[in-house]
Amino acid sequence: MTFAQFLSILRARKWAALVVFAVVVASTVAVSLLLPKQYQGTASVVIDIKPDPVSATMFPGLTTPGFMATQVDILLSDRVAQRVIRDLKLMDNAAIREQWQTETQGEGTFEQYLIQFLHSFLDVKPSLQSNVISIDYKSPSPQFAAGLANAFAQAYIATTLELRADPAKQFNSFFQAQTKEARESLERSQQRLSAFQQDKGIIVTNERLDVEAARLAELSSQLTQSQGISAESSSRQAQARGDQSDRLQEVLNNPLISGLKADLTRNEAKLQELSQRLGDKHPQVVEARANIAELRSKIDLETRRVTSGVAVSNNINKAREGQVSAALNAQRTKMLEMKAVLDEGLVLQREVENAQRVYDNLVARMNQSALEAQNTQSYASVLTVAQPPTKHSSPKILLNTLLAVFLGGLLAVGVALLMEMSDRRVRNPEDAVAALGLPVLGSLPAPNAKRFNPARPVGLGLASQQRAVSLPAPGYQTGV
Predict the structure, then answer these.
(1) What's the rounded Cα separation, in Å, for the pair 99 and 118?
(2) CA proximity to 386, closest of 38, 40, 41
(3) pLDDT by residue (tens digit) across 143-181?
(4) What predicted TM-score, i.e. pTM, was given to this entire model?
(5) Coil, strand or helix: which one is 443?
(6) Which strand (E) or helix (H) includes residue 136?
(7) Which domains does the chain have, with CATH numbers?
């Protein structure tokens, strides 16, 4: 279809198209004027992303992509609507209750009817580039629309606080019970440790073990020294028992033996002199020999006495070595026992420390959950308070009229085309050519034409194979 054909169809069906266009526009304007006026109250809330003042951490949900969508769902939830109903005491509104009785015949609950009624006029729109959520409410009353928008904003903020505080209260109750059990466990562990310390008579510390270890090291050193002294005394005793007893240091250093040996030396020299001068039988020589024998007897006696002292000293050293060795063994046994006791005590002490650590952590979590349960600061706050609008938001007469003009025009054109398709007419030479497949030789104005233009050319043409006459059409007369 060419544009000229389209225009010819519109000219032919203009009255039908005008009627359709007028009906659509007039109906839209009439309906817009008859519809009750609706006023829209708009409030807005802002989601303030700040760290939690109690835990000093960022809210985990604020960084997720669906956080704003979640806030919109919360605003549209029944819980927020129920809070609005409680805050505004809509359950006591007799007019709304009568409306519910009329519309539902008492079926269902009045509260659920109110929730559906409020949601039907509520519109929540999150901002695409910010953390602001707009809350729109429509009502025939400007004051009611603004009041409901503000009520939904306040109910949303209160609900977000409840959604944070209620779990915190539950956690607080849980931590209180766990803290009580942890405190009882800590007390039992402390009692077991105290009873163990009293039973063993010790304080479970490493200082006592260090003292005993130092004493063990000292006894070990004393044993080494005693063993050296005992070995030396045993060697001197063995020397004293042999034929070299007179070479002992004790014998050589004994002054009495030294004096007796000096007297013996002088008497032997005197005896030798008397024997040479007086002879062996002389009484003086005999007396001198008797004196020498007596001196030797005294030296032997004193030597035996000194060597017997060496044996006594050796026995003493041996006894001392045995005592030190026994003390060392006893100290070693004591150390092993103390180590076992210390290990057992350390186990009990670690139980006390672990119980204390668990108790401290639970107390900290309990205090934190208690603070969170008492928190009155929400991450959402009112940005804009709705004011009663001065102009109605719907119906929008100008916008509806423009839409009616556009849709009416489309519908009018569509009706004209449908009418033309149901009753096809030849309205210009092109229609004849399209319908018959023959060329148009010429056209004349219709007899009832108001004006004939002689300057208008008469179309002439020859058919290549045959001649034909176009179909008559209103407004034109065709000829050969």
Answers:
(1) 14
(2) 41
(3) 988 999 999 999 999 898 888 887 878 888 888 898 899
(4) 0.52
(5) strand
(6) strand 132-139
(7) 1-34+406-422 (no CATH), 35-162+379-401 (3.30.1890), 425-478 (no CATH)
CA pair distance 292, 260, nearest whole angstrom: 10
Show the tokens assigned to 210.
């260090």
Residues in the chain: 480
- With a CB cutoff of 8 Å and minimum separation 6, the contacts of 359 are 179, 182, 183, 185, 186
Q: Give the DSSP per-residue string, 187-201.
A: HHHHHHHHHHHHHHT
Per-residue pLDDT tens over the stretch 419-464: 877 777 666 677 667 666 677 776 666 666 555 455 444 443 333 3
Extract the tokens encoding 346: 């350390």
Peptide bond into 51 cis (omega under 30): no
Judged on CB neighbours under 10 Å (0-12, 13-18, 19+), 465 is: exposed
Helix locations, 242-282, DSSP H: 249-252, 255-278
Q: Are 156 and 74 a contacting pair, CB within 8 Å? A: yes
Nearest C-alpha neighbor of 156 from the set 221, 72, 237: 72
- How far apart CA 90 and CA 464 sit, in angstroms, is 88
Nearest CA among 178, 174, 182, 177 for reference residue 369: 174
- State the Cα–Cα distance between residues 461 and 432, nearest whole angstrom: 14
Cα separation of the two ends of the chain: 26
Look at strands 39-47 and 132-139 and give their pairing. Answer: antiparallel
Locate all alpha helices (DSSP H) within 13-126, ordered by sequence. 14-34, 67-75, 78-88, 94-104, 110-120
